[in-house]
Amino acid sequence: MTEKRVWLFREGNAQMRNLLGGKGANLAEMTNAGLPVPPGLTITTETCMDYINNGNKMPNGLMDEVRAALNDVENQTGKKFGDSQNPLLVSVRSGARLSMPGMMETILNLGLNDETVEAMVKLTNNPRFCYDSYRRFLTMFGSVAWDMDRQKYFESEVEKVKEREGVKEDTKISAEGWKSLIPVYKKVIKEVTGKEFPQDPYVQLQEAIEAVFRSWNIPRAVAYRNMNKIDHNFGTAVNVQTMVFGNMGDDCATGVSFTRNPATGENTFYGEYLTNAQGEDVVAGIRTPKPISELQTEMPDLYRQYVDIAKKLELRYKDVQDMEFTIEKGKLWILQTRNGKRTAAAAIRIAVEMEKEGIIDKNRAVELVDPYTVNQILLPCFDNKALEAAHKICTGVNASPGAAVGKIVFDTEEAAKRGEAGEKVILVRIETCPDDIHGMAVSQGVLTLRGGATSHAAVVAKGMGKPCVSGCEDLKIDLANETLTGCDGTIYHKDDIISLDGGKGLVMEGAVQLVEAKIDENWNTFFSWVDEIRTMKIESNADTPKDIENSLKFGAEGVGLCRTEHMFMDPDRLPWVQKMIIAGTKEARKEALDKLLPMQYADFYAMFKALGDKPLTVRLLDPPLHEFLPSKEELIKEVATLKALNKDASQQEEMLHIVEGLSESNPMMGLRGCRLGLTYPEINVMQVRAIFEACCDLKKEGVAVKPWVMVPLIGHVNELKTVKEILTKTAKDVMNEKGIEVEYKFGTMIEIPRAALTADEIAEYAEFFSFGTNDLTQMTFGYSRDDAEGKFLNKYVEEKILPRNPFESLDTKGVGQLIEMSMEKGKKVNSALVGGVCGEHGGDPDSVKFCHKIGLNYVSCSPFRIPQAKLAAAQAVIENNK
Amino acid sequence: MTEKRVWLFREGNAQMRNLLGGKGANLAEMTNAGLPVPPGLTITTETCMDYINNGNKMPNGLMDEVRAALNDVENQTGKKFGDSQNPLLVSVRSGARLSMPGMMETILNLGLNDETVEAMVKLTNNPRFCYDSYRRFLTMFGSVAWDMDRQKYFESEVEKVKEREGVKEDTKISAEGWKSLIPVYKKVIKEVTGKEFPQDPYVQLQEAIEAVFRSWNIPRAVAYRNMNKIDHNFGTAVNVQTMVFGNMGDDCATGVSFTRNPATGENTFYGEYLTNAQGEDVVAGIRTPKPISELQTEMPDLYRQYVDIAKKLELRYKDVQDMEFTIEKGKLWILQTRNGKRTAAAAIRIAVEMEKEGIIDKNRAVELVDPYTVNQILLPCFDNKALEAAHKICTGVNASPGAAVGKIVFDTEEAAKRGEAGEKVILVRIETCPDDIHGMAVSQGVLTLRGGATSHAAVVAKGMGKPCVSGCEDLKIDLANETLTGCDGTIYHKDDIISLDGGKGLVMEGAVQLVEAKIDENWNTFFSWVDEIRTMKIESNADTPKDIENSLKFGAEGVGLCRTEHMFMDPDRLPWVQKMIIAGTKEARKEALDKLLPMQYADFYAMFKALGDKPLTVRLLDPPLHEFLPSKEELIKEVATLKALNKDASQQEEMLHIVEGLSESNPMMGLRGCRLGLTYPEINVMQVRAIFEACCDLKKEGVAVKPWVMVPLIGHVNELKTVKEILTKTAKDVMNEKGIEVEYKFGTMIEIPRAALTADEIAEYAEFFSFGTNDLTQMTFGYSRDDAEGKFLNKYVEEKILPRNPFESLDTKGVGQLIEMSMEKGKKVNSALVGGVCGEHGGDPDSVKFCHKIGLNYVSCSPFRIPQAKLAAAQAVIENNK
Q1: Residues 6+ apart with CB under 8 A from B856
Q2: Is B757 on the interface with A (CB under 8 A)?
Q3: What digits encode the pLDDT tens for the residues A606-629?
Q4: Does chain B have fewer CB atoms within 10 Å around its N or its C terminus?
């Protein structure tokens, strides 16, 4: 625990983000860089956790420290908190270590009360602005600090004033109109909460600070952290900063901007602003803002000042900056800067261009791209011709790139439910708020009627890699009848299919044809740097020649996992597979296998040919045999029905008998993997024969082949020893028959905890270990993947019992410990032992970094995840070198 | 590999049993002790494994070494191998490190051929004996070395001779009769094998040695090793020993005897012999032998000589000796001595009495009893009155003690099948041979018509702890009609129920009433020594007050596992348990739990009261909830039937819906254990409330209570942390309500590999670790216990892929490694951490020894296994002190 809990901006710096939060650290950095930052103070993130861990109790003496710091701010500004002549007004904002935009609470204009508002009127000579500010403060205070319904108690009253004054827009309400709301709001606050609105600014301040602390754990913030894999123990800092006003008249403005375009990466100043507005108006999407380029015309000097500051900040942080500014009566204030979120394509372009501009080096460029996002670029987009031909419903803001096709759904809960169930839906909303996040997460895309490129919908969708079109103000939604009316008056109903092009801002009728993604020059440059830096090989999981083609396109350096059972599921083969399974005798089984042999041969021939001189790791048959038979439950139902109707059920009963004989109460831990091969050795023999016949023939044709034969589910060295004897003999036999030698490796999956624990014994018989981290996670945790997620695992992650879903990201403490142990033990007896991962984790960037750290030779993942695995592997090298 | 492969008897000693086998080491020891042992040589066990591992190829130069050693034997005896004047004849016998009686092959009278047999006739002047010996040798050579069917090609010819000579017994066949078989046998050997019977004794010898080597791996030997947990890599030695003959006339005899009674332990010389016979006649049970006491009358000098030698050997080996002797023309030869097999009751009596006689000390006494056998003594026996009143079918030899009730089955295969399926059968055979072992193993008891107390049936049954009555020569079996005719002519059919009293040798009609076992003074003395020596606590697994009563009777020092789910299965409670499960809301669940609370209270009240001041470890609800609901498959069948008949199925469909919602594809790895408690905290809260209400009330009544609360299936520290918070709060609440403090411990099962891997984190929140080795074995191996055994595990054990069934005996390399790791990591953060085992392994002697070795504090097992666990724990102390 750091003893100093309250820091003035001039006391901090950019390196202190863990303690001061991202916003606080950057305000400090900017302050010290001499930029025009309104003075203020930051309460540390640790203090927030202290508050939460003490059951939401304010730490002793904290307010005294705040008061002391605020005195300093008063001295800097010449204003005084609660003063009846020249009152200091402040904003109270959250600011976590990692950006969580819009997730937590903010209160503005704090310090206003019945007395100071009058002082402000005198000072500004702008009563309309002052009473508006006061009623905004009352609204935020009531809803944020004291949990009142904003719409019900506050916004509804604004509507009444508009009606009374006969105006349609907020900006048209008179000073008297705003003023009339003050007593109304104070009264409703008292009625609902039972407490008087506090006139004492320090009481206001304490309430606001506590509200921000508490907002660390409101549901949308927790959900956001879960989705973005942010530790729930970080806490948020609280920034108390002198208010500046972008809404004091037409010489005022407020805006946000990026130093480069966050959607495309283009090196142009990018952003939006509103004149005579407060910052929240831009972000909330209530008024549609103007592009920043217009500021150049409206206020050329200030624009130039701002661009200068922006470029300086980009150089200082060696990253794109996302800044907030306010112009108060012709004076520019910088309220915030932070590294800008961006699409994956933008991230790559920015990284490559900044390197070329000499701002950063290659290592820094590689660090600038989040590996979790790069596969967005590989997502399909619409076919150009189909796009042209499509019926456009509307054009809006290109808020987040990508192509989405799905059914219209208006209700977030419904979208969440149907999307989770696997249905393709598009969430259509007037505007989105943080409560919509869970619905957005499982939709194909998001369409909103209001808000620009930096609205909530846009920012969140970009973070998720979801296509989003926002600001389609010409569309109309009828929520009661669940219809959407297009620009031409066409009415679309719930469940009608539409298509979104988030990169172009287009909304189209029906399902527009998709085409695969194209990779550009920046991508190639960037990944050439990645390949230079990384040391771990990236292979792919591929079961067909088509998969191999894809893998090679994405730069796979081999196939780390070829699952042969997928070949067995082919409808042409299934009957023979079933015959093999139900065979009563070895001979009958052999007969079925003889039919399957040429088919497997053809599979392997095509795959080895496609892959050429890179290793192809074939896993021998793994799943329980009953997976290839009809469902037991269906058969029970069928037999019962036939019998009830006095019909012949003998055939179905016979099959049921067979299926029951093979069924297991826990198939995941039953007769599968090498246990199959040891029970029915002829199955493995057939597969190995097919592999080597194919390889021998290809080698004769001059094709280089590198077969790696992999045995699944080894738990005891004797299993491997026994299987190896049979299989190496088969391989030798085939090579003798064909009269040609093929070099190969023989290895094993390590996916049973006991295999890891006895890896020293097992390594004597294996040239490589391939960690099947899916199964290893299952067994190490005792979680059945098929059951756990729905039954309790999601709840575990939500309730922070587990930091992450261990099937998504490797549990380094438990499963990772076993992997590390295996390699250590294995290398003691076999120093040439090769180690890799072929589970889902092979494509998860954090897991890939762990694999690099413990010295594995390769990871293998699905073809689309190869780029992100490569990038993670390169970043791991850079991190380890630091 | 030891370089010297062939050892003369005088070159070895009793310590060399691993290399020379038990028989060879003992022959060497006896030779060096100056006892009358026929000279010979031993080929090492390693040579046997060398032969087998080289694909049954004779090691280079081995026969040269044998020839050199045999020259020495020739010099000692003055006879010469193959000599036409004074030929040396030898026996060739197996002899493994651990005794495997009758499991491997033996060839006698080797060295006989057409020439030496005539020399023998001249020497002995006993042509009948010589030709009989030659035909016996031909029979054994053909059947053992060259795999011919003994019955078909050899014994059938003996019948023809009997017919020709008009005699009924072998002993009545004339010299000419035996002689006539020689050309017949040589001819049939040539016809069947295509090879001439070898006249060269060295060729005979090599063939015989190879046959003995190979017999290490014949099916019955492999089965015996599996059953007796003998390593398949030990191999057998081969003993080549000068023949002595017990069948050269009436001044000859052969027999086997024990220095004490192996059935009761009584300190009397015990055994059987036959005059004018070879040793195999006694063991094979073909002629029913005389009790050894008769030898005292028949040959008093020799008897005295033999008893002297026997007592010397007992003192030398500090154990009961099982000896074989032959008297050849008035000279006593000792052919073998080994530690005698005995019943558990005999073992205890012998150990106690030998200590009292000053032959051994207490430690040695404790070592003399095999912990795997002691629970035989706890098996029930017949009620005395019921036994008297029962209709006796027959009285036979009391071959192996114990009481058995079951259905008559005549066929070994049928007995094996039905016994495995759980049916209670009694195997009834004329005599048993090694091929009957698998049928004996699953029968309740064995009844044979021939053979004495040392017959195959008797020896094997004793080893298995199966009741056996042998030698019921008055019974008749009709195999064709599957009937058994009693002494009084009553005919019993297959499937009729009979009772066997193996201790008294009684066969009775119907099911005779059983009573529980009684424990005698020797038992008490023996276990007082065991308790003195052992340091590890032995607790019991007990779910009811009745279990606790049993546990205390067997000396449990606490309850290490009380499974609360067994209480939920009670038919009175199941409806409320089901209501709890299908409750849609927290409130509905609470209501059901409120009904269950007083029932659980009553359970705990009774159990804590019964156990008093010893710790009672309560495991919170563990199994998946669907175990308490109707079967899904039954419901599917029911719904399909009702629907096919157009009947209302809505009720069943609703239940099916609930059951399907709860069903899991791998329930063993699903929503169970602490995952239940975290999903529905109110269940655990109810249980903990019941525990503490009961304990508080009892403490108020002055009853000492020691509750230990145990959470199952922890895999991540946060699970335990979360549960602990809820549960310690509940405990505190109850104690506050009741106004009394109860000391308790809070701990966790370690049964998930990840818990073991992160035990340092977990130990911060646990006062004890209880290793649930059943689940830990499941997860560490990835074996579902419900599936594995039938599907592949039995095969694995048979085929030596696994040395033992890891659910029976702890896999120390894998699972044991995790346990050791857990305790090491756990004690680093919590040095007071208590560790114990509560899986099935807690009662398995080898596993108990491992637990002691790694420093666990207790094991917990089913009440009947407490004595064997205690004994193993004491033996572990002795072994560790060596």
Answers
A1: B536, B771, B819, B823, B835, B836, B837
A2: yes
A3: 999 999 999 999 999 998 888 888
A4: C
Hey, are the CB atoms on B670 and A791 less than 8 Å from each other? yes
Helix H segments across B768-841?
773-781, 785-788, 794-798, 817-829
Mean pLDDT in residue range A704-716? 97
Helix or strand holding residue A255 (H, E): strand A253-258
Whether A775 sits inside 8 A of B782 (CB atoms) is yes
Tell me if B262 sits within 8 A of B342, measured CB to CB.
Answer: yes
- Judging by DSSP bridges, how do beta strands B834-837 and B768-771 pair with one another? parallel
The sheet carrying A90-96 orders its strands as A6-8, A40-43, A236-242, A90-96, A106-110
**Count of other CB atoms within 10 angstroms of residue B185:** 21
Euclidean distance between CA atoms B201 and A319, whole angstroms: 94
* B585 shares contact with chain A (CB less than 8 Å): no
Which residues in chain A are contacts of B813 at CB distance < 8 A? Answer: 757-758, 761
Find the angle CA(B128)-CA(B131)-CA(B135) to the nearest 5 degrees.
Answer: 135
pLDDT band at residue B279 under the 50/70/90 scheme: confident
Query: Dihedral through CA B363, CA B367, CA B372, CA B377, nearest 10?
Result: -70
For residues A464 and A462, give the distance between their C-alpha atoms in angstroms, rounded to a whole number.
5
Residue A878: its H or E element: helix A866-881
Say if B722 is an interface residue toward chain A (CB within 8 Å).
yes
Pairs across A and B, CB distance < 8 A: 208
Burial class (CB within 10 angstroms; exposed 0-12, middle 13-18, buried 19+) of A679: middle
Output the pLDDT for position A856: 98
Which of A537, A400, A550, A369 lies closest to A465, judged by CA? A400
- Other CB atoms within a 10 A radius of the CB of residue A318 amount to 15
Q: Which of residues 302-321 of B touch A (CB under 8 A)?
A: none
CA nearest B263: which of B195, B320, B208? B320
Phi, psi for residue A368 in degrees, rounded to 5? -75, -10
Catalytic residue list of B? 456, 838
- Catalytic site residue from A438, A456, A841, A852: A456
Residues of chain A numbered 626-685 and touching chain B (CB < 8 Å): 632-633, 636-645, 664-671, 675, 678-679
B-chain residues near A642 (CB < 8 A): 644
Residue entry with tokens 């009374």: A164
Q: How confident is the model at residue B284 (pLDDT cuts 50, 70, 90)?
A: low
Angle formed by the axes of helices A681-700 and A586-611, to 10°?
Answer: 30
**DSSP codes joined into one string, A39-96:** -EEEE-HHHHHHHHHTTS-PPTTHHHHHHHHHHHHHHHHT-EET-SSSEE-EEEEEEE
Buried b (16+ CB within 10 A) or exposed e, A453-490: bbbbbbbbbbbbbbbbbbbbeebebeeeebbbbbeeee
- Using DSSP bridges, classify how beta strands A331-339 and A381-382 pair: parallel, antiparallel or unpaired: unpaired
Say whether residue B811 is in contact with chain A using an 8 A CB cutoff: yes
* 8 A C-beta contact, residue A706 and residue A767: no
Binary contact (B782, A783; C-beta < 8 A): no
d(CA A379, CA A402): 7
**Helix spans in B368-502 (H):** 384-389, 412-420, 437-442, 456-464
Name the residue of chain A whose CA is nearest to B800's CA: A718
The number of CA neighbours under 13 Å toward the Cβ of B574 is 9
What's the pLDDT tens digit per position in A22-38?
A: 999 999 999 998 999 99
Q: Would you say B171 and B200 are in contact if contact means Cβ atoms under 8 Å apart?
A: no
* A671 → closest Cβ in B670, B779, B787: B787
The pLDDT of residue B283: 64
In 3D space, the residue among B368, B326, B342 whose CA is nearest the CA of residue B270 turns out to be: B342
